[in-house]
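Page 37, continued from 36.
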C-alpha cells in the first residue's frame, strides 16, 4: 500500500509518451470526458509532475511515475516509451507496460475506478473523438527592457534527422541576444545548448524545479514569438497563443490541424533539417514580427 491511496470514485490514466501527443490528443480527450461524462469523479493522472499545469483545470491528482520506470531512461515515440535505439513505431516492451500498470494500481481502489488507458503506438483514433482544449496563460507580469523571444533548440537522439544542427541554434541565439531577451527551453536529454550562458539569455533547459512549466508558459505569454523545429514545445507555444515560427516538414499539421486556437504561425518548410542557417531564421522572424505588428496596428485602428 502506498502513502497516497485514493478510495473514492475516480478516473485513472497515465502519460509515458511524447509531450506533443499528450497535448494535442490525450489530455484534450480526458478533459472532454471530465466535463461531459464523469463530472462527479476525480481524475488521477500518472505522469511527469512538471506537466501538471497543462491539466490542473480538471485533474485532481498528478502522481509521478515509478522510480524504476524513470531509471530505465526509455525513449518516447507517439503513445509509447520504447527502448533507446529501437526503430520508429516501436511499442513499450510488454513486460514493462504490464509492470507499470501493476505499480499504478497500488494507488487506488480498482472497484471504484474507471481506467482509461491511452491508445497504443502511432494511433490517431482520438482524432475522431470529442476533445476539449485549454488555452494556457498566466496572470504574472514579466519585466524586461527588451522584447522576449523563446527558443526551443530540439536535440533529440530519436529522429535525430529532425534536429536543426546545434551550431545553427548557437549562432541564432548569438544574433538574437543583440536585440532580444532570449529564453531557452526544453529538456536536458532532448535539447541542444544545454549549457549556453550569456547576458540577455535565460537558459531554463536544465532548470528542474516544479514550476518549470509555469515559467515556460509565463514567458511564452509575454513573448513576441517562439522559434522551434517541430518539437513538444512547438505545441506548448501554439496552445499558449504565442506567435510561433516553426521549422519543419509538416506545415498543415502545425499551422492548421493542431493549431487549436488559430495562433499566428510562420513556417519554414525544409526537406532536410540541416539545410537551414541562422541568417535565414533571422530573416524569417523579422518578417513574421513585422507582419504581427501590422496586424496589431490594423486591429487598433479598426
Amino acid at each position: 500500500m502506498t502513502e497516497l491511496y485514493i478510495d473514492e470514485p475516480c478516473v485513472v490514466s497515465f502519460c509515458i509518451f511524447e509531450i506533443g501527443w499528450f497535448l494535442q490528443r490525450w489530455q484534450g480527450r480526458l478533459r472532454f470526458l471530465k466535463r461531459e461524462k464523469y463530472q462527479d469523479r476525480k481524475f488521477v493522472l500518472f505522469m511527469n509532475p512538471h506537466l501538471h499545469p497543462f491539466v490542473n483545470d480538471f485533474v485532481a491528482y498528478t502522481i509521478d511515475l515509478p522510480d524504476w520506470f524513470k531509471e530505465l531512461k526509455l525513449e518516447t515515440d507517439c503513445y509509447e516509451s520504447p527502448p533507446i535505439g529501437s526503430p520508429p513505431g516501436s511499442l513499450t516492451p510488454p513486460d514493462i507496460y504490464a509492470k507499470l500498470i501493476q505499480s499504478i494500481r497500488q494507488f487506488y481502489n480498482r472497484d471504484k475506478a474507471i481506467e482509461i488507458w491511452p491508445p497504443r503506438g502511432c494511433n490517431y483514433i482520438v482524432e475522431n473523438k470529442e476533445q476539449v482544449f485549454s488555452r494556457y496563460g498566466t496572470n504574472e507580469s514579466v519585466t524586461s527592457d527588451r522584447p522576449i523571444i523563446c527558443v526551443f533548440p530540439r536535440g533529440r537522439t530519436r529522429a535525430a534527422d529532425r534536429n536543426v544542427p546545434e551550431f545553427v541554434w548557437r549562432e541564432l541565439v548569438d544574433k538574437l541576444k543583440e536585440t532580444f531577451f532570449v529564453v531557452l527551453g526544453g529538456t536536458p536529454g532532448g535539447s541542444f545548448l544545454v549549457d549556453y550562458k550569456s547576458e540577455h539569455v535565460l537558459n531554463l533547459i536544465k532548470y528542474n524545479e516544479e514550476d518549470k512549466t509555469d515559467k515556460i508558459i509565463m514567458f511564452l505569454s509575454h513573448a513576441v514569438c517562439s522559434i522551434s523545429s517541430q518539437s513538444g514545445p512547438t505545441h506548448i507555444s501554439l496552445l499558449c497563443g504565442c506567435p510561433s515560427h516553426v521549422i519543419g516538414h509538416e506545415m498543415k499539421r502545425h499551422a492548421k490541424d493542431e493549431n487549436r486556437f488559430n495562433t499566428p504561425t510562420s513556417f519554414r518548410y525544409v526537406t532536410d533539417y540541416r539545410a537551414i542557417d541562422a541568417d535565414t531564421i533571422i530573416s524569417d522572424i523579422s518578417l513574421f514580427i513585422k507582419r504581427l505588428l501590422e496586424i496589431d496596428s490594423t486591429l487598433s485602428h479598426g
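Helices lie at 19-36, 67-71, 94-104, 166-176, 212-222, 232-240, 251-257, 278-301. Flag for discussion at group meeting. Residues 148-301 form a domain with the Rossmann fold fold (CATH 3.40.50.2000).
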